[in-house]
């Protein structure tokens, strides 16, 4: 049966004899034969070429990358090479074999000489274990078989699922804290004095929300909105934001410990990616000269300028969403339909969030092409270097795509719109939106909730359905039609490899960045779970539910719907760790800004301790926030424009009624916001640093294990130093 173990399969259309494509294909296969590859051809509706590497190739690999003692082993040592290593070596040689026309496999595939090249899903014990214990919905709450994943898909995929499993486990604690925060908001803080005042403000007349067809409105009309706002915006949210800042650090520190255990168990500490790449190059071509590192300041400057232009475009798209909301608000408020005009602000926010989701879907594709183009400009030395550069660029682009609109809502909405009589207008026509009198945080809550729910439902359904439908269609299209057998063809038709190769060919193609896509999806989700989590405490719960489904959905895709991924070796999650650490720092800044600027927490505290009845010694059972709403609204002197009107409408701001300049209280609140922001961020960052110091990256057990291994190796080497060979 050893004869039927094939490392790779190449698929080609049946070209005419003597055609350019047929000649190119023959040249490539001849080059493989010269390198000692065994090639088997099966003809069907397509041509299938099974490829098996010579044992000598694997013996060379072992000689180059194992310790000197193992080099004395005979050539049968190749049997000890794991299947994942075999596939990795063969894939590298296939990709780097050059024909006499100076063409590689990638060039030949672009010219349609070959259609596909893939390793095989084979009927082996480990695959059946993975199908039974991992790639099915029945085992959704069971522990992942990480060791088996490693043996089948390689270390890189196994580390991704180990990280995702650890992240999902840690989300349990964050989700619980979020639920407690929301429960506290719904019970303890639901009867807050501020929302009571809004609900009782039957005689507080507010300025119209638009210029035409909008009348004055009564503040108590927004009672429900105020209650929802104070369910999110309360003292518990501040505590939750600090907890999440600490959680982000603890999660990463504990992951580093987990990774250290995994790296030790898998003997990855001594492995060097660069050394492996050089070894594979020499195995492929003993005359190979290493490609040296290069750096061009001119290329770097061009890449930087183009990246900044792309970021500017993404911010411009966020501005377009702001314009949409302002125009939608004005149009809906003027609508004759009572439902639309009454809820114009909420509908504008909801539809704006859906539009934001659509821009995320579209721009994700654009960002990918731009990031790849910028990577090609840099001319990275290796594939892993290219992947690292691509990761940084795509994350920055995706961050601005996902968060530009949220940053506007959190920090600019209602703060740059001017005041009655002097509103800031878009194109001199449409007024910018205003915040609700109870604060802007609900707008941010709605935007985040809509985006997260849509991303985790529509995106996941499409992520699973598209490969499933594609697989079903390929099965129908690619099934060979039964044809009459000619003399001597019967044996080939019954070839045991034929069915296996056809079944693998019918599976969906694996993208070279398919694992990268999974990482990116999770890292963006992690950003939503941490950066603005103060405005949306349910984010960790949504992420937890999504991840439990995501793990097994990915497993089913990889085992049943896609061709086998080429295994890659890695000793950690690479540049993603630095990206996650950067997000952790952004989370501290983001949540500090949300509480200091978006939330009404600071204005309420300033009122309580400087302007409330309590400051005048009248503390007999009175809530110190009594009178806050009335205090936070300014008066617009409409008589200056319409002398016969007796109404004194109010609007949300701290301005003098005479000249509309800011009051002293505005500057007190501004100073308090700034002081809180500095204090919050310093405390949170100090706690993060203490947590990072307190939890060692590498467990003591692992350190001791590595120390003893080094000692034993040196001790064994010492025995070879014979006493009579010592100088002197």
UniProtKB/TrEMBL annotation:
UniProt GO MF annotations: chloride channel activity; protein dimerization activity
UniProt-annotated location(s): Cell membrane; Membrane
GO cellular component, one term: plasma membrane
Xref: Pfam families: Anoct_dimer, Anoctamin
InterPro entries in UniProt: Anoct_dimer, Anoctamin, Anoctamin_TM
Main location class: membrane
Record-annotated Anoctamin dimerisation domain positions: 84-146
Keywords on record: Cell membrane, Glycoprotein, Membrane, Transmembrane, Transmembrane helix
Parts of the chain that traverse the membrane: 157-186, 236-255, 302-327, 347-364, 390-413, 523-552, 573-597, 670-695
Domain Anoctamin transmembrane: 149-706
Domain of life the protein comes from: Eukaryota
Membrane topology: Multi-pass membrane protein
Homology family: Belongs to the anoctamin family.
PANTHER family cross-referenced by the UniProt entry: ANOCTAMIN (PTHR12308), ANOCTAMIN-9 (PTHR12308:SF37)
Name of the protein in its database record: Anoctamin
Species assigned in the record: Chaetops frenatus (Rufous rock-jumper)
Gene that produces this protein: Ano9
């Amino acid at each position: 049966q050893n004869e039927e173990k094939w490392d790779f399969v190449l698929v080609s259309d049946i070209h005419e004899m003597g055609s350019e494509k047929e000649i190119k294909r023959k040249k490539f296969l001849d080059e493989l034969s010269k390198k000692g590859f065994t090639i088997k051809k099966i003809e069907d509706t397509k041509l299938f070429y099974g490829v098996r590497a010579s044992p000598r190739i694997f013996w060379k690999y072992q000689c180059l990358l194992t310790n000197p003692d193992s080099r004395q082993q005979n050539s049968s040592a190749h049997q000890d090479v794991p299947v994942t290593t075999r596939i990795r070596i063969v894939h590298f040689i296939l990709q780097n074999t050059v024909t006499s026309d100076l063409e590689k496999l990638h060039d030949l595939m672009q010219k349609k000489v070959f259609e596909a090249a893939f390793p095989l899903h084979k009927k082996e014990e480990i695959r059946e274990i993975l199908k039974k214990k991992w790639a099915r919905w029945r085992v959704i709450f069971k522990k992942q078989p990480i060791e088996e994943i490693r043996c089948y898909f390689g270390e890189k995929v196994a580390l991704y699922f180990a990280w995702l499993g650890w992240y999902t486990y840690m989300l349990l604690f964050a989700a619980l804290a979020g639920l407690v925060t929301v429960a506290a908001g719904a019970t303890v803080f639901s009867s807050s004095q501020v929302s009571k005042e809004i609900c009782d403000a039957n005689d507080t007349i507010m300025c119209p929300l638009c210029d035409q067809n909008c009348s004055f409105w009564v503040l108590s009309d927004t009672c429900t909105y105020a209650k929802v706002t104070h369910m999110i915006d309360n003292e518990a949210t501040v505590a939750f934001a600090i907890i999440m800042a600490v959680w982000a650090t603890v999660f990463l520190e504990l992951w580093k410990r987990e990774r250290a255990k995994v790296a030790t168990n898998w003997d990855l500490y001594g492995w060097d990616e660069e050394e492996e790449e050089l070894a594979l190059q020499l195995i492929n071509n003993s005359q190979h000269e290493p490609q040296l590192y290069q750096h061009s300041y001119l290329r770097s400057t061009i890449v930087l300028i183009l990246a900044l232009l792309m970021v500017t475009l993404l911010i411009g798209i966020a501005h377009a969403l702001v314009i949409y909301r302002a125009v939608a608000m004005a149009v809906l408020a003027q609508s004759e339909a009572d439902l639309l005009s009454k809820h114009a602000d909420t509908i504008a926010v909801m539809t704006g969030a859906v539009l934001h989701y659509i821009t995320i879907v579209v721009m994700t594709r654009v960002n990918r092409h731009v990031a790849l183009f910028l990577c090609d400009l840099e001319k990275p030395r290796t594939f892993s270097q290219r992947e690292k550069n691509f990761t940084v660029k795509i994350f920055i682009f995706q961050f601005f795509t996902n968060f530009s609109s949220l940053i506007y809502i959190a920090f600019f909405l209602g703060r740059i719109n001017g005041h009655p009589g002097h509103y800031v207008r878009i194109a001199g026509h449409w007024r910018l939106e205003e915040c609700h009198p109870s604060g802007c945080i609900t707008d941010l809550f709605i935007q985040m909730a809509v985006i997260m729910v849509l991303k985790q439902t529509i995106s996941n359904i499409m992520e699973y359905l598209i490969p499933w439908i594609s697989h079903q269609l390929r099965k129908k299209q690619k099934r060979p039609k039964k044809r009459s057998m000619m003399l001597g063809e019967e044996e080939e038709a019954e070839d045991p490899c034929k069915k296996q190769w056809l079944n693998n060919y019918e599976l969906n193609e694996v993208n070279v960045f398919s694992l990268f896509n999974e990482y990116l999806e999770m890292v963006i989700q992690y950003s939503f779970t941490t950066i603005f989590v103060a405005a949306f405490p349910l984010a960790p719960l949504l992420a937890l539910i999504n991840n439990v489904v995501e793990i097994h959905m990915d497993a089913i895709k990889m085992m049943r719907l896609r061709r086998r991924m080429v295994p890659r070796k890695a000793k950690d999650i690479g540049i993603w760790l630095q990206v996650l650490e950067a997000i952790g720092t952004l989370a501290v800044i983001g949540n500090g800004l949300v509480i200091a600027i978006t939330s009404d927490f600071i204005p309420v505290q300033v009122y309580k301790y400087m302007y409330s009845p309590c400051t005048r010694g009248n503390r007999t059972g009175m809530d110190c926030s009594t009178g806050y709403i009335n205090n936070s609204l300014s008066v617009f002197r409409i008589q200056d424009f319409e002398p016969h009107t007796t109404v004194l409408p109010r609007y949300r701001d701290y301005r003098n009624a005479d000249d509309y300049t800011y009051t002293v209280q505005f500057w007190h609140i501004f100073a308090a916001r700034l002081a809180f922001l500095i204090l919050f961020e310093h405390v949170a960052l100090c706690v993060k640093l203490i947590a990072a110091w307190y939890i060692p990256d590498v467990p003591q057990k692992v350190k001791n294990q590595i120390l003893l291994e080094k000692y034993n190796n040196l001790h064994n080497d010492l025995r070879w130093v014979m006493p009579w060979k010592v100088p002197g």
